[in-house]
């Protein structure tokens, strides 16, 4: 039985960290190392974590606040396991999470394994439909699958995956501090450069907790500077995506699908400007002008017919309207204002 290191970044996670820790300690897979890296919390996170320091395999480190990439990289430096996994302090895992992921990785002689998850909204669980068919796939097939929706949590996060520590260390793979949105996806892409096979399992093994947050108000409160930061992040993510696709020989064949990444961004911003952002008309015009001046957006728009973009926008409006209705129903049922 090989040792698995689970790295948990924590920042002011006093409300949820204990649930997360307990779910990892109660795993059926016993050869585990749990590393909590505290990103300079000012709440009771340290107090909770220190209660568990005497437990074999449990390690707690406190760092000066520097962001999730920094503390995950610190966790990687401290890791001693043959395999490494990541769990967020807000989330928690089923007791078979580690066991099933290791079995899938080793049983299929793969370099990475990905599982499905459950989304928790106001304490209710909602299954997420898998974006892939179950089974072992080549690295290139996995990358092609990401083109369905590269921004989706399923592909974009790291907490539903298991990696080989040897591949990470031999190739100096780290989380990039210059990316603050989408750093998980970039890490996975960098890892896949050196991978051969991926095992896809449909087991829903982790609870992604998305609750007690008014997402709509967060969007409405966004400033142009926030959106500019997001676009800058997307530029960096796209550069990595293109570089990896070129390296494995997929870029030319799937160029249009890869550039759909920017079409989705453009349409989402167009919708948010119309329906969500509470900005002045002048600011809205300035932001749209800035989007359309982005070279990646311009190049992507040239690859798609106007009718294709119109159809995608219509589809996006329908899906957003449906999501908003569902959110409203859930909030009403839960008595959330």
TrEMBL record:
This is Glycosyl transferase family 2. CDD domains: Glyco_tranf_GTA_type. Keywords: Transferase. The lineage of its organism: Bacteria, Bacillati, Bacillota, Clostridia, Lachnospirales. Signal peptide: none annotated. GO terms for molecular function: hexosyltransferase activity. Residues 5-165 form the Glycosyltransferase 2-like domain. InterPro entries: Glyco_trans_2-like (IPR001173), Nucleotide-diphossugar_trans (IPR029044). It comes from Butyrivibrio fibrisolvens DSM 3071.
């Amino acid at each position: 039985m090989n040792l698995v290191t689970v790295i948990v970044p924590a920042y002011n996670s006093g409300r949820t960290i204990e649930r997360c820790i307990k779910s990892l300690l109660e795993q059926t897979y016993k050869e585990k190392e749990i590393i909590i890296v505290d990103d300079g919390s000012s709440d009771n996170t340290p107090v909770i974590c220190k209660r568990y320091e005497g437990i074999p395999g449990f390690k707690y480190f406190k760092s000066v606040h520097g962001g999730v990439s920094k503390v995950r990289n610190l966790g990687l430096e401290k890791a001693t396991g043959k395999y490494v996994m990541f769990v967020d302090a807000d989330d928690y895992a089923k007791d078979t999470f580690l066991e099933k992921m290791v079995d899938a990785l080793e049983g299929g002689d793969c370099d990475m394994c990905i599982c499905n998850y459950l989304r928790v909204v106001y304490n209710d669980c909602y299954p997420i439909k898998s974006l892939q068919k179950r089974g072992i796939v080549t690295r290139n097939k996995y990358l092609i699958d990401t083109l369905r929706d590269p921004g989706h949590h399923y592909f974009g996060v790291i907490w539903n995956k298991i990696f080989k520590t040897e591949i990470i260390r031999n190739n100096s793979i780290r989380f990039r501090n210059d990316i603050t949105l989408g750093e998980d996806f970039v890490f996975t892409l960098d890892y896949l450069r050196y991978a051969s096979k991926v095992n896809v399992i449909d087991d829903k093994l982790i609870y992604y907790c998305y609750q007690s947050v008014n997402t709509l108000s967060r969007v409405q409160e966004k400033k142009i500077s926030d959106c500019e930061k997001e676009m800058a992040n997307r530029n960096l993510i796209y550069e990595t995506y293109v570089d990896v696709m070129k390296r494995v020989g997929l870029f030319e064949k799937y160029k249009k699908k890869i550039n759909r990444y920017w079409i989705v961004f453009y349409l989402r911003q167009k919708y948010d400007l119309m329906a969500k952002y509470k900005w002045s008309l002048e600011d809205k015009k300035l932001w749209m002008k800035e989007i359309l001046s982005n070279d990646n957006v311009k190049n992507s728009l040239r690859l798609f017919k106007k009718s294709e973009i119109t159809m995608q926008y219509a589809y996006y409006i329908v899906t957003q309207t449906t999501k908003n209705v569902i959110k409203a129903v859930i909030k009403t049922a839960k008595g959330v204002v």
